[in-house]
Amino acid sequence: QVQLAESGGGMVQAGDSLTLSCVASGRTFSSNAAAWFRQAPGKEREFVAAINWGGVVTHYTESVKGRFTISRDNAKSTVYLQMNSLKPEDAAAYYCAAKTDGTLGPGVTTTRIWNSWGQGTQVSVSS
User: Fold this and answer.
1) Cα(62)–Cα(20) distance, rounded to whole angstroms?
2) Among 55, 56, 85, 46, which residue's Cα sits nearest to residue 68?
3) Which tens digits make up the pLDDT trace of 84-119?
4) pLDDT digits (tens, 9 = 90+) for 25-66
5) Which of 15, 64, 77, 105 is most buried, by CB atoms within 10 Å?
């Protein structure tokens, strides 16, 4: 497992952009797949985006396609989530996750297959 630490959250207005970062500790991170999930108050944690170990394969939930971009820099052990055209419904605590299997396969959108989690960073979007 790796240790994950998110940053970059904040309060923005609808239509604004924000970039989240997730820094990992541990020499195996470059072989891990990584993902972003989010959780709004009173709701379950939901999948947002995932990226494979090499950064070539990505997967997004439908509601963020065309607005969010996940990327990674393995030299910096960092995964990013670029969020554009933010909407009030995007407001949530955003969590970074990683798993030792570097591929994106069945179940990638479920929390149970991800074995490392960060503490989260809050994103607030006003209308």
Assistant:
1) 19
2) 85
3) 999 999 999 999 999 999 999 889 999 999 999 999
4) 977 899 999 999 999 999 999 999 999 999 999 999 999 999
5) 64
> What is the three-class DSSP state of 117?
strand
Distance, C-alpha 65 to centroid of its chain:
13
Q: How far apart are CA 8 and CA 122, in angstroms?
A: 8
Query: What is the token pair recorded at 68?
Result: 């969010």
Q: Which residues contact 46 (CB under 8 A, 6 or more apart)?
A: 37, 38, 39, 61
Tokens standing for residue 82:
């670029």
Rounded Cα–Cα distance for residues 52 and 30 (Å): 10
Is the alpha carbon torsion for 38, 45, 2, 107 positive or negative? negative
Tokens matching residue 119: 């503490």
Q: Quick one: CA dihedral 62, 28, 73, 96, positive or negative?
A: positive
